[in-house]
Amino acid sequence: MASIKQYSLNKNLAWNAAGYGIILVAVLFFIFTIRPGHDWGGDFGLYIQHAINIATGAPYADSGFVLNPKNLFLSPHAYPPVFPVFLAPVYHFFGIDIHAMKVAGIIVFALFLLLFSRYARNRLESPLLYVLLVAALAFSPSFWESKDRILPDYLFILLFYATIMIVDRLSAVKQPFVKQLPTVLLAALLVCLVYGTRSLGLLIVPALLFHDFVRFRRISRATAVIAVLFVIYYFAQNAALQIDKSYFEALVQVDPVMEGAVPDDVGPSVDADTAGQDWLGLLKENLSILEKRIPYKLEVYARILSKYWYIGRNDHIGAILFFIMTAIALYGFVAKISRSPSFGDYLVLSYVMVLVVVPFEQDRYILPLIPLYLLYIFHGMELVYGYGVKAGAGMVAAVSYTHLTLPTIVREC
């Protein structure tokens, strides 16, 4: 019996070592393929200026940026503070060194891969599919392209999945509330940090309430404490920086740059000068356009996600892979949420609902969903293979080919 246990332990260690080895190779690959300079999107400049202000003791929002009241979609007057706090030590030691800031971001991505590999190991039964999932994620063209942008995407995703894991731990371990309190406080801190990195983190508390109500038919003490502490942080951050006020005013304004890029009847028509004055009218207007906006946004994000499967040789093959893999992902998602749900499964639903409601979109908004999207695909493969269908092996091969040969990365290098 001891020898069987030892064999099992050694086998698990071998699979885990393979996963960690893939992460190490991927991180080195990311670092050695960093491109010089930066694209000319303005977001990175504002984040760096906030970091400089933190490092030098200047007022946080004193960036020199002049807010255009007629084009609020361009940028808020200030961005959330957690990512600039992360960048401030890099600026302190290296100055405005774009390369150093990119390396710092890649280190954060490496931490995320280590964290997610543990999460995936607990949610997949097949160690082979676990290793393939780690490889697919570590060498994802979407994340590889993000390494050259000094933006909070990596940090947001790390904190996003850390929150998922700590909430899962709270749900799984049955202890008296007093013994859970340190973990609850850590979860509350993570929720605040996610929101302090990107305002989309605001959806975590509603997702927590949704998770508790569906799974337990009640709101747990832990969730109540997390929600109260988050509300305190929310008002403190917005009293100091008024970030969400800028975002809300942008939401209710038609963007002159994007005008004509989306159908006229899928965005609000409230002028910035009247933003905040006619709340009821704004609510009625947005409710009236949701019927048209939601299908439009689903199409937009499906198109964005479908790029993940294009291999640079034949877009038709990529489209076929996208539809097949997404069907498998939906199958895996339904199986997971009905049999062994994670808070991440409920958070995915909340995140998608937000994306299809807000009247603007960016490719990088989909990044936090990709790890779970891949996990659902591989879990779906487990189920298909478990039923003895040979297509399961073919899908493993398709995913391996699409990601491990890195056609997109090779083409861009």
Tally of strands: 0
* SSE order: HHHHHHHHHHHHHHHHH
User: Uncertain spans, ≥5 residues at pLDDT below 50?
Assistant: 1-9, 254-270, 272-277
Give the helix/strand class: mainly alpha
Largest sheet: none
Morphology call: globular
Give the proportion of residues in helices.
Answer: over 70%
Q: Mean pLDDT, as a whole number? A: 80
What's the alpha carbon Rg, rounded to whole Å?
Answer: 22 Å
Number of helices: 17
Cα distance spanning the termini? 51 Å
The portion of residues forming beta strands comes to under 5%
Secondary structure layout plus pairing:
Elements lengths: L1 H31 L10 H14 L25 H13 L3 H26 L3 H12 L2 H6 L6 H20 L4 H21 L6 H13 L4 H21 L1 H9 L27 H28 L8 H25 L3 H15 L12 H17 L4 H14 L2 H6 L1
Helix pairs in contact: 1-4, 1-5, 2-3, 4-5, 4-7, 5-15, 5-16, 7-8, 8-10, 9-10, 9-14, 13-15, 15-16
Give a description of the structure.
The chain is mostly helical. It is built from 17 helices and no strands. The protein has helices at residues 2-32, 43-56, 82-94, 98-123, 127-138, 141-146, 153-172, 177-197, 204-216, 221-241, 243-251, 279-306, 315-339, 343-357, 370-386, 391-404, 407-412. α1 runs parallel beside α5 (127-138), α9 (204-216) runs antiparallel to α10 and α13 (315-339) crosses α15. The longest helix is centred in the N-terminal third of the chain and has 31 residues, at 2-32. The radius of gyration is 22 Å and the shape is globular. Residues 1-9, 254-270 and 272-277 have low confidence and may be disordered.
Structure characteristics:
disordered N terminus; globular; 413 residues; mainly alpha
